Amino acid sequence: MRAAPVTTSPLVRRLGIAGVALVSTIALAACQAPAPEASGEPVSGGTLSYASGDAEPTCLDPHVGGNYPQALLAGQFLESLVSRDDSGEIIPWLAESWTADADGLTWEFTLRDDVAFTDGTPLDAEAVKVNVEHLKDPATQSSTGYLALGKVDRVEVVSDQVARFVMTAPDSALLESLSQPWLAIESPAGLARGMDENCQAPIGTGPFVVDEWVKQDRVSLVRNDDYTSPPADAAHEGPAYLEAIDWRFVPDAASRYAALQGGQVDVIDNPQPDTIAAAKSNDALTWLDAPRPGAANRIELNSGQAPFDDERVREAFIRAVEVDDGIDALFFGTAERSYSPLSSVEGVAYSDDSLFEPDLDRANALLDEAGWTERDADGYRVKDGVRLTLRFPVSTNQSIPAEQSLFEQVQATAGAAGFDVVIELLDLSSWYGALAAHEYEIVSAPYTKVGPDVLRILYHSDSITPAPSGYFANLAQLDDPEVDALLTDAASTTDAGSRAELYERAQQLILGGYYLLPLYDQQNSFLLSTSVQGARAMPTVSTPTFYDAWLAD
Amino acid sequence: MTPGSPTEQRRSFGGATLRRAGLLVAGAVFVLWAVATLTFFAIRLIPGDPAQAILGGPGSQASQEALDQVRSDYGLDQPLIVQYFAMLGRLLTGDLGTSYALKLPVADLLAAQLGGTLLLSALSLVLAWVLALGLAIWSTGRGRIASAVGEGIEITAAALPHFWLAAVLIAVFSVALDWLPPVGTGTPAGFVLPVVTLAIPLAGFLAQVMRDSLLDAMQQPFVMSARARGESAAGLRVRHTIRHASLPAISLSGWALGWLLSGAVVVETIFAMPGLGRTLLQAVTLRDIPVVTGVVLLVALVYVLMTVLTDLAARIADPRLRQESGR
Predict the structure, then answer these.
(1) Distance between B61 CA and the closest CA of chain A, angstroms
(2) Touching check for B64 and chain A: CB below 8 Å?
(3) Residue B97 located in a structural domain
(4) Which of A74, A112, A258, B104 has the most CB atoms within 10 Å of its CB?
(5) For chain B, what is the HEC assignment?
(6) Interchain pair B47, A468: CB under 8 A
(7) Do B175 and A9 count as a contact with CB atoms less than 8 A apart?
(8) Which of A186-190, B220-224, B252-256 is modeled with the greatest confidence?
(9) Contact flag A23-B185 (C-beta cutoff 8 Å)
């Protein structure tokens, strides 16, 4: 899944920094006595108030489209066939067990027999079939779920509780894909109401139910008292402790933090790094650090056109830029430098920091060797009368202010080697427009997905071919038959050991070709009042779950 | 006083009012048409494909079939001029269309958001008036120092950006003092900070205009004669000069409401209040053309209505205007 738009305008967002800084300063002055440690015994009842800085979804059904704001909310009222535990193992959820045949072309999922949707419809194999058909139907306008089911041909009903997935090709990422909230199982009767109605309040099997959605304001969720289906790694059974969740949309980061400090809300997402740093020294607040799975945040180098079609120029850029100090200073120690294309959440993530050691002399030597020998009046390198310009479109919806400042650091350090980095701050539509028109040499685009198969989406040459909208995922335009073969093999192998090995070799080639500059995991943080106990992030796509949560006094 | 019998006067007054009303309606229709036209073409100048906006927003991976289907369903495959007249036709029948992103009727979406924004704007306008009047009255006729201080406060207040003011107010009244919620709650307490944020800069503008005309009024002969009649300083203000001084501020209030509605985009976002401002921001981000057009038209309509109302209010405050139309 690509990152979703955040509603905050660049203006409000930039000013937000000033606001946060100010608020934190005054907050320090008004620091209160630490809250007492809450007792360990869960308490039933109460309404948890959540303030989200992510964009308000336009449809609450994550089958439609499929972005992160939808996943955040859907995780409270919809559930998937399988989940993932902290170690990355796939664990039972709505399906209690599953088997694949030897060639990986059919999978059979046995569903729990004690689960019903909140409209009373029982969970059965027919429901799974209807959901997969819903996701694959072009009229649903699914993007994330649709892609994840690319190798699923159809679902057959074997018995009430057994659903058979018939594949067009083996898919080693099937379970990881099915664990994502974008492939959650909804009530067939709910889906039959049609998209307009289902978008307002999808019906699932989750611990909470959508009660009301007041646009531009909030979604009210109430407890499902008949709840029976927690994932295998949940801390308790039966209904949730909380009676209700008041899910509010508060786009401004400073207001969100102020509301949390004042006790007006209990949990906020998307805190800015300086706010996290301030919260760490505040005993009344807890920091939940939950990096997203899939790809790490990284700068991709467009190898499909000059000047980065020359590996020497790519390496020169990567050797020239220095980001470590910037990450430390701008993220206040909340983000750790990455040297892998994959998130540290992924067990098969492969890192090699030796490739990213800054070395200005080597950068200069490489550029001289590549023919960029002259410099113009501004100190930028020139070859055949053309300046060494790198266009860098930056999405203000996806890059937080700290990241935008980091990119300015990239600009400055690359400038020392003679690169003219031109940063363009763009809104989401214009940003996608620039990418579709190939008007970029470097770009940073987050991508969230459970499992290492994200590498195939980002670096297989098939992903250079644009969708009709102009969108394509392989922004490095990496076109290497050897990488393609490794990624294709990894996606279809049934053996976990050889799968990991194939992904490691693919990552070595991707990193070694200097196609990307890894920065850090895709940051995903939550700040909680210490009165909120038992909340955690799902080990799937790191959305928070409040099923085990309770409010201590 | 205009000579003539009461009946004559009424008849001619009525005719003039009708003529005037006709002109106002024609003007309003022209403004709305111009706004609809400008919005229609302006929104097509910014990058972004409406068909993509309908199919899940920017960067969607919709199939060619889906894009073609949507383009023909929504008439996006027609020439621009055909689409333009189709939109005008719909607007004439009062149909604002369906939101691309939310798939709900625009009229319903706007109806749900209008109340909050209007209440916010109206309260801000009232508070701005109170603050401006107080400041203008306090700082005139009290010598050079008061006048300079008043002028300084006005200029500073008028120059304060909403986002900055909001951040400071939250830091002081929510975080440090814990008196007021930083995020709108729908309760009266939740309205205080947003209203103050919008009212302070506006009060600065209004006070500047009021003070100038108040000073002007103080120089008028009628002030001298009122004084000669033994009118007190307070009575003079209440009965004579304020009325005089408020005229330009009244005509400015129509403009002020438009200004408040644009301020609502920032204030509603910062204080997380539902309303037209946030709706507009989201719609622009998602290239939701029907919603953008709807909000812009609605704001234009409010603006036009306000102009008519301020015109009426000015007539009530200033008898000379009534005389003129009766002639």
Answers:
(1) 6
(2) yes
(3) no
(4) A258
(5) CCCCCHHHHHHHHHHHHHHHHHHHHHHHHHHHHHHHHHHHHHHCCCCCCHHHHHCCCCCCCCCHHHHHHHHHHCCCCCCHHHHHHHHHHHHHCCCCCECCCCCCEHHHHHHHHHHHHHHHHHHHHHHHHHHHHHHHHHHCCCCHHHHHHHHHHHHHHHHCCHHHHHHHHHHHHHHHCCCCCCCCCCCHHHHHHHHHHHHHHHHHHHHHHHHHHHHHHHCCHHHHHHHHCCCCHHHHHHHHHHHHHHHHHHHHHHHHHHHHHHHHHHHHHHCCCCCHHHHHHHHHHCCCHHHHHHHHHHHHHHHHHHHHHHHHHHHHHCHHHHHHHHC
(6) no
(7) no
(8) A186-190
(9) no
Ordered DSSP codes for A172-195: TTHHHHHTSGGG-B--HHHHHT-H
CA distance A61 to chain B (A): 12
Chain A environment of B61 (Cβ under 8 Å): 143, 146-147, 467, 469, 471
- Tokens 């098939």 locate to A462
Q: Residue B176 and residue A29: Cβ atoms within 8 Å?
A: yes
- CA pair distance B298, B115, nearest whole angstrom: 12
Tell me which residue range forms the domain holding B230: 105-322
Kindly report the average pLDDT of chain A as a whole number. Answer: 90
Query: In A183-195, which positions are buried (b, 16+ CB within 10 angstroms) versus exposed (e)?
Result: bbbbbbebbebeb
**Which amino acid, one-letter code, is at A51?**
A
> With a CB-CB cutoff of 8 Å, which residues 268-307 of chain B face chain A?
268-275, 278-279, 281-282, 285-287
- Looking at the 3D structure of chain B, how many domains does it have? 1
State residue B232's pLDDT score.
Answer: 74
pLDDT digits (tens, 9 = 90+) for B102-154: 888 999 999 988 888 989 999 999 999 899 888 888 877 677 888 888 888 88
Residues in chain B within 8 Å Cβ distance of A474: none
Name A205's Cβ contacts closer than 8 Å, sequence gap at least 6: A78, A79, A94, A115, A116, A117, A118, A123, A185, A227, A229
pLDDT at B10 over 50: no
pTM of the predicted structure, to 2 decimals = 0.85
What residues of B are in contact with residue A67 (Cβ under 8 Å)? 57
Q: How many beta-carbon pairs under 8 angstroms link A with B?
A: 190
**Pick from B62, B167, B273: which is nearest to A22 by CB?**
B167
The answer to the question of residue B227 being in a domain is: yes
Domain assignment present for B50 = no
Nearest CB to B175: which of A9, A23, A217? Answer: A23
Residue of B nearest to A427 (CA): B285
Q: What is the CATH number of the domain that holds B251?
A: 1.10.3720.10
Residues 6+ apart with CB under 8 A from B174: A258, A259, A262, B180, B181, B182, B193
pLDDT per position as a tens digit, A507-537: 999 999 999 999 999 999 999 999 999 999 9
Closest partner CB to A214 (pick from B61, B172, B274) = B274
